[in-house]
Design brief:
single chain; 2 domains; about 15% helix; disordered N terminus
Length: about 200
C-alpha cells in the first residue's frame, strides 16, 4: 500500500508527459508535408518549397461544411489563352495558397515568370505569373506575395492533348504591401491529368 501511494504521482506525471508527447507529435504530423517526386505520368501531384516550408495541396472543409478541393485547374472561358493551377492547403492550421497563371500555353518549353498583381483569372495581368498567400509566423498575419518581371521560370515538360500537363518551376516574389520583403519559391513540380483531377484526393 505504501508503495502504491508513493508511485501514484509518478505514474500520473508519466501519463501526462506521454499524452503531451503524443499530442504534440500528432500536431506536428498534421502540418507535415513531403514533396512529391518529379514525374510526367499524370499522377495529379503538386509541391514546392515556399521560403523554406513545403507546400502541397490538401483538401478540407469550408463554409457550410462543403468540401474545399486542394487543387483545381481553370482556363479562360473565351479562348483558353491561359490556364491557372490553383493550389490550397486547407488542412493545416495556418492555410496557404499559390496560383500559377500560365499565359498562352502552347506546349513543352520554358515560360518566363513576370509581373503579377496577386489576382487570378481575368483579373490577372496577361503574363505568366505566380502569386501566393502565406502566414507570417513572426508577425502573426497572412501576407500576399507577387512575382515580378523576369523573376522565375515555369518549365513545361509534358503537354499532351490538353489533358496531361507536367513541369517544374521556381520564382522570387515580393510582398504586395512592402517591395523590400521578398521570398523564394524553389523545387516546384506538378504532374496533372486533367481528366481525372476532379476526382483526385489531396489528404
Amino acid at each position: 500500500m505504501v508503495f502504491q501511494l508513493k508511485t501514484f504521482p509518478s505514474l500520473l506525471l508519466y501519463g501526462f508527459l506521454l499524452n503531451l508527447f503524443l499530442f504534440g507529435s500528432c500536431q506536428q504530423v498534421d502540418d507535415q508535408h513531403d514533396l512529391p517526386s518529379i514525374t510526367q505520368t499524370g499522377e495529379n501531384t503538386f509541391g514546392c518549397i515556399i521560403n523554406g516550408k513545403v507546400m502541397t495541396p490538401r483538401d478540407g472543409r469550408g463554409t457550410f461544411n462543403l468540401e474545399d478541393n486542394g487543387l483545381r485547374v481553370f482556363g479562360s472561358p473565351e479562348s483558353l489563352d491561359y490556364i491557372e493551377i490553383r493550389v490550397n492547403d486547407f488542412a493545416s492550421k495556418k492555410t496557404s495558397s499559390i496560383v500559377l497563371h500560365i499565359e498562352s500555353l502552347h506546349g513543352i518549353g520554358d515560360y518566363k515568370v513576370n509581373e503579377s498583381n496577386c489576382y487570378q483569372g481575368i483579373d490577372s495581368p496577361n503574363t505568366t505569373n505566380i502569386f501566393c498567400r502565406v502566414y507570417d509566423y513572426k508577425d502573426k498575419i497572412y501576407r500576399s506575395y507577387c512575382s515580378y518581371s523576369n523573376s522565375g521560370n515555369i518549365s513545361i515538360s509534358r503537354f499532351e492533348n490538353d489533358q496531361f500537363i507536367a513541369g517544374e518551376f521556381y520564382c522570387s516574389l515580393r510582398n504586395v504591401d512592402d517591395s523590400s520583403d521578398e521570398i523564394k519559391i524553389t523545387e516546384g513540380r506538378f504532374d496533372l491529368n486533367l481528366s481525372t483531377l476532379r476526382s483526385a484526393n489531396f489528404p
